[in-house]
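Predict structure. Chain length: 895.
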Amino acid sequence: MDDLTGLVQQLQAENARLQQQVATLRQVNQSLQAELERSQPPANLQQIETALSDSEATNQAILRAIPDLLMRIGRDGTCFSFLPPSSDDSSVFLPVEHHLAEILPPDLLADQLRRIEQALTTGELQVWEQQLVKRGQLCHEEVRLVPCSDDECLVIVRDITQRQQMALELGAKIEELDRFFSMSLDLLCIADTDGYFRRLNSAWEKTLGYRLADLENTPFISYVHLDDVTATIEVVSALTNHQEVVSFTNRYRCLDGSYRWLEWRAVPMDGLVYAVARDITDSREMTLQLQTTKEQLELVLEASSEGFSDWNLTTDEIYFSPQWKAMLGYADHELENSIEMWNSTVFEEDRLAGWQLVDNYNSGKVDALSTVYRHRHKNGSTVHIFTRVIHLKDAEGQVVRMVGSHLDITATVGMQQALQTSEMQLSGVLNSSIDGIMAFRAVRNDSDAIVDFEWLLSNPSACAVVGHTAEYLVGKRLLDELPGNKTDGLFDLYVQVVETGESVQRQFHYSHDGIDTWFEAIAVKLGDGFAVTFRDITALKQSRQVLQDVNQQLESRVDELKQRNDEMQRLGEMSDFLQACLTVKEAYQALGTLVAPLFVGSSGAIFILNPSRDRMEIVTTWGPELNSQPLFSSFSPSDCWALRRGRSHQVGPHSLGLRCHHAETAAIASTTLCLPLLAQGETLGLFYLSASEIKQPTQQLARAVAEQVALALANLQLRETLQYQSIRDPLTGLYNRRYLEEALTQAIERAQRHRHPIGVIMLDIDHFKRFNDVHGHDAGDRVLEAVGQLLRDSVRGSDIACRYGGEEMTLVLPEAPPDIILARAEAIRYAIGQLRVSYNSMTLEHLSVSLGVASFPAHGATGLDVVKAADVALYQAKSRGRNQVVVYSACNERS
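Prediction complete.
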């Protein structure tokens, strides 16, 4: 409101100043004409010169004082005089030397010549506004044109660009205020002191039920409850005396005859009253109901999985709830309520730190008290309890009471430790890799263009190539440390990867920054950056060069060497393709096509050991022989001598031996070769080859192919395993909480861009602890697995199902409106109620869940807010008797 008032005042002042200057010019012109009419022939020439000099000085002073451009223009647009304002810095007005065509485009020139002609014809003042591009910027001018002779006009030009900008800002502010006025959930109004509303927003119609026209045409005092009329009239009187009113409450009658309590804040201004009212009927009713719900609240606390404590510092009495004692494995009567008991269960290190934190909190050194204590369980294990405490002070500001809530987070701590272990394993893989691996984040300028990349990660192999440690490189800029990337076009290639999301594989010779090496690199997009894996292929490049020299010297062996070279290239291509495969399944699909060109005229197959390790299953075949006489699609590992002996096994006319059982269908005259696929001492599968003759070079090639295939498959399996473990809960198969937080943040950002809703459902298995106590934790795990499988089968491809913690699970439903979210929640609740889980010859049934529903953006602006809202609704569902769905509302949270 202050910004809007300031803009209006500036526009009014500018307009007044312009009108004053025009009036001044008119007065000067009239004065000069009157003086000429009154003047008599001068007595002598000296008096004439003195009068003219004084008049000229006066005119010049006036012209220097006005901030306008003055020009004397002829009928055809010729400029006879050009007088810019004395304060002009040559940036406001374009200079005119001879003709208006020097600064005006054709359309404006034609319009101005027309106005000059009209002024000279009619003798009337011409006033208009025009837009003109000056030095690349669009400017606004006000032009006043008045005839000063039969063929000339005086043109006064004022730059009003700033005034136009202020007018646009004023319009935007007014539009913004109108939008706020119409969209506000509070009841906004403008009234006069005579008792009538001047303007109301739509919230009045929604709250009271009347049409706005009815409210605005009736004295507002007629809607006020009779008991509140006197107080309301007193408030109106105070507003008439220019007093601000805050927190005044009265009751207004609704269309249905009921009354709503309104809380007012009103400010008088310029004979009007600007007021904001808020409907507090529900909050008042809730306050009245608060006392009656005390017993229910105590029951909720008793049924909650959280424990609580209450310490009276005046009497030094302390109370620990049975739930808190149950966290340590004790019944309520087994532990006394005393400080000494708490000291005896907590770890010594945490006890000392905890009391220091209490002192700091009560003395005001810290604003909050929340920490994790380690306690000794009755069975000797360690329990991690998250404790949050608030204190209450008396009228003198002394702390007299401390109330705490306590939550067992042992399972969460265990998951965090497992995550750290997983990260350590990943770090081990990076550190042990012989390939260089680096990751970068894009550095962008104000135009969002990538100007450099910042180091995020560099493994030891990469550090050895660059010549710096990882500690030095992290945070540094790529082009600062290795400017050669810009010279060779590598930087542009990395920008392309980030902008398009397409991976790039390239071999290049880098001869900058103290490095002279051939590299083979693969760059892939990673967030707003990229990761690159590279290896030194200088030796391979040199070997190829030596091979070319030998081919030139030994022409007699050209064909053989060419064949070997082709095989090496195909083997390298096969290795590259396998490294580029994203999944094991994709590698299986590519193997037949990649391997067949290496063994022309031969037939073969690749078998993979199944997960139970009791069968070899075929994944690909090639060659004509296997098409006419197919192998077994699967066989036992004991049917192959190569697998039983752990080494290659060849049988044929020139290499006698026992033929494997799985190869009995091969032609008797053919030679078969079986090679185990081994990686890191573990058997992954079998490489099988059949041909009329398998020579030594072919055997070597087959061994190389088997090694490459085994290594590639092992790497892919390890990658898939690490990927699955990093984002999945091992028990339920659902996503874990870490993945949820990252995925929900990205979903919120997409929803904000595309303006679509997101639904969040929090569910908790009812009485799950009692279920574990009755049937055992293994049965509880079986139930969690069954619920997790049901959720995985129930969600769409775009939905996210995760295990939030314990028996709590979370669903994220992008682009789902509230009614769909509620329907989905009810469907899931019903489906879980129908579950029948088999465990140890028992059928576990009568399962139920409580569900809380919230949506973005209605219930929160961030993912954390929406999850919190869903969690509040979940606990409302549990407090209302469980086995139901509750949609979040602010009233739920306050209750």
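Summary: The CA atoms of residues 210 and 255 lie 6 Å apart.
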